[in-house]
Structures are given as C-alpha cells and as structure tokens.
Amino acid sequence: MAIRVMLVDDQALLRTGFRMVLAAQPDMEVVAEAGDGLQALDILRATSVDVVLMDVRMPYLDGVETTHRICERGEGGPGQPKVLILTTFDLDEYAFTALKAGASGFMLKDVPPGELLTAIRAVHSGDAVVAPSTTRRLIDRFSTVLPAATPAPLSHGMERLTEREREVLTFVAQGMSNGEIAAHLVLSEATVKTHVGRILTKLELRDRVQAVVLAYETGLVRAGGR
Question: Whole-prediction pTM value?
Fold first, then answer.
C-alpha cells in the first residue's frame, strides 16, 4: 500500500514541487494539501494520512501548534499521521519546538529529493529522522531560542541508564547516526541500535527525536559546547 502523504505549506509553488517528486514514486501518494494549519486539521478529520510534510511558518495556525494538535492532542484524524517538519533553517527558529510538540523529525526545504523520500519512508516505518549534519547545526541554533522554561534536573531519569547508555545518548544528541556512533565507540551498529532502544525504553521516550530534546533539556549536552 502506498504511503499516503499530506503537504502543508502556504506556498503553492513549493507544494507543487514536492507533489511532483512524490508522484513519481510507486510507493507514495499525495492524498491531500493545505495552505495553513487550520485547513490541514479540517482535512485530516476526514482523510486518512500516514505522513504530513509540515511547514513551520504559516498564516492562521503555524506548523508548531498544528503539530502539537496532531501528535499530542490526537487531532490527526483516523490515520494519526506522523509529522515531518520542513524548515528553511535560518528563519524557522521554532522548528526545534515542533520536535517537542511531537514531530518525528525535520528536514531542510532544499533537501535533495532522494533524502526527502528516504526521510518519508523512515518516518512512516516508525523511525525518527534526525539528519546528523543538520542536527548539529539546528540544535546549536534552536536550543538558544527555546521558550523560557524551568530546566529539568540532570538526574531526570538518567540514573536508569548505564554509563555506556549515557555515552550513546550524548552522541545521539550531537546528531550522530548509529553507524557514526558505532565507529566512534568501536561497537557494531546492531549493538548501538540495541543501546538506543534501551535508552528510549528506560526514559519512556517515543523516539530518537525526544531523546535529543531530553538530552538538551537536562543539560547532558549543551549547545555550542558538547
């Protein structure tokens, strides 16, 4: 069955470009489009969607609040879709906040088509897309402009982790892939994947994105100084 994708962006030309790329894939189908968050929620109530490609800055209801309503408040309709944020990086300071709101990852709008398609498939399969090179830049930038909040204590759940698991979590938060972590720690990629799975279970996290957010919120990793 084809992956049902919804495009949410206030720029019709961008939606057209993404639609053309996705339409050429035998395993993907664009089933809906919206120009803002309110319209997207209305459409989702009656349309089954697997993955939403979500812009951040839109009129009426932005991508952050729309993502929150879909992922945390269950307003994503019958399919309860995953959300993949599309950001312009330099302007969308709140993309990181969208990850906290439940998005399964983020990509730059100028991402090569092949990487976008891979990300959509990964998100659909239940993985989180935290592109290593992009993460290192975005986390450093966005974590300095997050809305003010009382930081969680460093020990929040961390005492459940072994020393190795905390080490792996640190590398995950720096945007390293499982392969990169494996090479750095001289482990097999399968072993790293097992460690990541245990980290998510022990800390009661949904996915890799939430692990990155928690690592920064607790101070395990700090922007600009790993």
Answer: 0.70
